[in-house]
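[Meeting: bench + compute handoff]

Bench side (C.D.) handed over the final construct sequence. Compute side (W.E.) agreed to return the predicted structure before the next meeting so the bench team could plan truncations. Sequence as handed over:
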Amino acid sequence: MNKFAIVFISIIMVLSVYGGIYMNNGTNAHLNNPGVSPATVNPEYHYSKEPAPMGIADYGIGPGGTSSSFNSTAFTGIVNITDLKTYNASISICPDNMGIQLNLIYSFQNGNSTYYYWVQNVAVLNTSNRQVVFVDNVWNFTSTNAEMHNSTMHGNGTLMNSSSAHLYYFASDNGTFRSFSYSNIKLRSVSYTASGYPHIYMEYNDGNGWKTYDTLNFTFASSVSHNYGFIVNGQNLLPNNSYADAGLILGGPGNSTNTRVIQANLTMGLEYWNGHNYQVVSNAYNHGSDTAEGVCNVSVSYNSASMIPMAHIETGNTTPGELYNSSNVAVFNFKSTVKNTYIKLNGSRYNFTGQYLNLTLNPGTYNFTLFSKYGQPVYSRNYTLSAGGYYSYTSGPSYNVTFTEKGLAAGTEWGVQVNGNALYSTGNNITFVLYNGTYNYTIPSVAGYSITGGSGNFTVNGADNSINITFVQNPSPVTLYNYIQDYKIIITIVIIGIVALIAIAAIRSEHNKK
């Protein structure tokens, strides 16, 4: 791709907002059952057929059209690509390009005013040569005539003006595409407050770990009384009549362009931070609404065969509508009595903070294993989850079993195996986190030492426990060198004596000859 094409993409990506979203008339058309309380938003107001921004989005609408709302400090969009090819000949400079957009509404209260910003975290892909560039956009949705100024926000980008609003725009790597295998792409937007000002980290993960490519600082907001973070609300529209939704969608590369999907086999998931871990949304539609870029010739289906609910994208055609809701999935809540732990669910690792874990999962049977902070499995069980169910489990009380050694030289590594699970240390103590029950243990051998209490059984019964292990250093083997070193004085005296006797004998022999 030539330099002009790169610059062209960087420019058109800033013009992605839906053209008619700021109309003052037709507000009720954005709602289902307007005038009836509670009303719900109408996700099909802008798009009733393809081309549309297709993927996975949470509008805050659950089973039977019921509305809900929540806020989160972070969202992650997950894209697993097996095959993806798009083409639109009318985009003459970049016909093979398309965009993957993580679209969120960010809100905070400054003084007596509440502000709303549409935040776009975007991967622009060239589906022909498998190149990508990451860009972000921020729009002011606080009112129909809201603006942005140089004093509004600071980051790595530049304020640009469009026909509908002022916005902030950033292109990573100076807007240049780079090649890599984009089979797995993740986009994440994280909100936080620092030095009293609201901030957003714009991040991506291309398989090589998370990278922050922009940090947005809303420098005008010096009196923030509440940082709501990213919001989802299925009952109320924003002041400019747009949706308070969260979505991960496929669309054209920018400037309200659409593109056609030629080949596709990929899955898309949307997660939010629930305070303890990232959790997939429980209600989802197969399309977004706020953006003007779209795709056609795509079939979007609910991927119920995966562990977590996702959208499966193939070629075909889909009418914009509901993808799944909370009656199709299960919510798994687990309380761990062990802090600083993680779990493996069917072999996949999930980290969480504190003692609680919440996961949205597809119905099925799962092998659940809880690990201690030392990496040892401390609790394991199979769970069967049904659609629409909410399951709450606890690991029960746990206790510390501490093995204490004495006799080893400082810094010597030793270990303990409990029911086959081993821990090692160069310190004096090794602690296992265990539940009530009977366990067996063995102490692996340490070179140069014998062990007292090297194996046995113990029982955990509602209390911590301690077990002492004694190491005794083995005596050094006796060698000729050791013998000589230990008795060198005696040997020296004997040798001197022998030499003296020989000398005396020689003198006497000489004397007798005379």
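W.E. noted at the follow-up: The two ends are 116 Å apart (CA to CA). C.D. will use this when planning the next construct.
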